Amino acid sequence: MKKTRTILMLGACTLLLAACGSNQASSKSTTSSSSQTSQPSYLTSKSQKLKTGEKTPQESVAIITTYAAKKYGGDWLTNLKQAKRGRLTVNLQDPENYAIKDPGQGVVYQVNGKKAGTIYVLGKDSDFYLYTKTTKSNGGKQLGHASIDQMITYINQKGGAKLAKQLATKATINDQRSGSESSTSSSTKSTVTTGKYGNLGTFTIPADLRGTWYTSVDGKITKYVITDHQISWSNDDENESMTLYKQDETWLGDHNTNPGQSLVDATKNWSSGKLVNIRGDQAVHTYGWLQNAGAGENYAVKTETVDGHQQKVLVISGGAEAWVDGIGYQSPTTAQNNEDTEFDDLEYR
Questions:
Q1: Of residues 201 and 322, which shows the higher confidence score?
Q2: N or C terminus of the chain with fewer C-beta within 10 Å?
Q3: 152 with 50: CB under 8 angstroms?
Q4: 349 falls within a domain
Q5: What is the pLDDT of residues 266-291, one digit of tens each?
Q6: Contact (Cβ atoms closer than 8 angstroms) between residue 295 and residue 320
Q7: Contact (CB, 8 A) for 314 and 275
Q8: Which domain, by its residues, includes 133?
Q9: Same domain flag for 196 and 318
Q10: Which CB contacts under 8 angstroms, 24+ apart, belong to 313-322?
Q11: Is the pTM of this model over 0.85?
C-alpha cells in the first residue's frame, strides 16, 4: 500500500511539472510572437473603411503614406509614426532634386520626417511609384507602385482606414518647386479664401491632367506644370501661374463690371475651374476670376499617335468652338519635332 501511494504521488508530480512546462512554453511563445510584431496597434484597426472615388490632396497623401508604411515598413513606417504624433507634411519638389530615372509626370512628392528620401511620383500610367532612401546623387530603391484605388483596397484589408483618415486631417502640402510663388495647402488653408469674393473653395484638377507638359510655337518651348489646384506656364518671356477655385456665378454677375483695384489685386492669380464636355471628352474649363468677355481656356488629355506610338497629349483649346490653341507633349524634344502636327480627331482654327 505504501509503495502504491508513493507511485501515485510521483505520477501527480510528473503531471504537475508537465503542465507547468506547457504553460511556460505557451507564455514564451506568446511573448515571442508579440515581440515580432513591428507595427503599432493603431495601424490595424478594422472598424472603419475607406471609399474609392475623388480624393482631396490631403486625403491622397494620407492614403499613400499609410499604404507605404503598412506594406513596406522601414523609413516609411518611421515617418508615419512621427506624423501620427505631429503633422503629415508633404513637399512638392523638382525631379532634379533626386537621382530617380523616371520622374513620372514631373513632380516629386517628398514625405517629410526623420528619415529622408521617402518620396513618390505620379507615373504616366497614373500609378504612384514609391521610393526610399533617395537623394540627389542616389536613386535609392523603388519599392513598388499602385493606383489610389488599389491602395485603398489594401488599406481596408489591413485595417488602416482609421489612421489614413486621421492623417488627412493633419496633412500639409508645400510647393517647394523652383518658380513657385507660394506654398500650397494645409487642409485648412482654403478657409483663408473660401467665402471671399465668390470663392467656394479649391477646384481639384483630375489626375490625368497633372504633370509637366511642353508646347512649341516657332521653336519656342513653353513648359506647363499642372498640379492638384494650379496651372503654371513659363518660357523665355513669362512665368505665370493660376490657382483654380470653384466660383459663385451669382457673385460674379454682381462684381465683374468695373471692379475696384483691391478686388483686382486680391484675385489676380485666381481662375474659376469646372469640368465640361467637349465633343465627348472631359475637359477642365478655366476663366479669369473677373473676366466678362471671351470663352476662357480648356485643358484635356487625349491619346494620339505620336512618332508612331500611342501616347497622351495635353490639348489646350479656346474660342467659341473650343478650337485647338496648343498641344502639350511629355518632353520638349517631342514638342519641337511635332510642332506642325495636326490630329484628325481635333478641331483647329
A1: 322
A2: N
A3: yes
A4: no
A5: 888 899 999 999 999 999 999 999 88
A6: yes
A7: no
A8: 45-175
A9: yes
A10: 313/343, 314/209, 314/213, 314/215, 314/224, 314/226, 315/283, 315/346, 316/215, 317/278, 317/283, 317/347, 318/294, 319/295, 319/349, 320/295, 321/347, 322/278, 322/279, 322/283, 322/295, 322/298, 322/347
A11: no
Q: Which residues contact 50 (CB under 8 A, 6 or more apart)?
A: 63, 152, 155, 156, 161, 164, 165
- The alpha carbon of residue 94 and the mean position of all alpha carbons in its chain are separated, in whole angstroms, by 15
For the stretch 62-92, what's the b/e string if a residue is b when 16 or more beta carbons lie within 10 angstroms of its beta carbon? bbbbbbbbbbbebbbbebbbbbbeeebbbbb
Using alpha carbons, select from 146, 162, 173, 172 the residue that is nearest to residue 72: 146
* Cβ-proximal residues to 123 (8 Å cutoff; 6+ apart), any chain: 102, 104, 105, 129, 145
> Among 222, 227, 244, which residue's Cα sits nearest to residue 177?
227
| Residues 211, 75 within the same domain | no
Number of domain units in the chain: 2
Quickly tell me which residue has 506568446 as its cell: 30
The residue among 141, 175, 209 that closes a domain is: 175
